[in-house]
Amino acid sequence: MQSIPFTTNFFADDTQPTRTDALAGDATADVLIVGAGVVGLSCAYVLREAGLDVAVVERDHVGFASSGRHMGHITPHMWNYGSKEPHVLAAWAHGCLDWIEELLATEDIDCDFARCPFWLPAATRAEAEVVRRVAAYYAGLGVPVRSVEANDFDLVTFRTWGAVVLEDQARAHPYRMVRGLRDAVLRKGVRLYEGTRVNSVEGGPRVTVTTPGGTLRAPKAVLALNAYSGQFPFLRHYTTPMHTYTIVTEPLDEDTARTVGPPPAEDLLIYDMAASRDEEHFYQRLRGDGRLFFGGGGTTPALAPDRMAPDGNDAMFRRIHAEMSRRYPSLGNVRVEAGWGGPICATVRGQPIVADVPEHENIVMAIVGNGNGIGLGTNAGRLVKGLVLGLDTLDESTRAFLEYCGESVDAA
Question: What is the pLDDT of residue 310?
Answer without folding.
Answer: 65
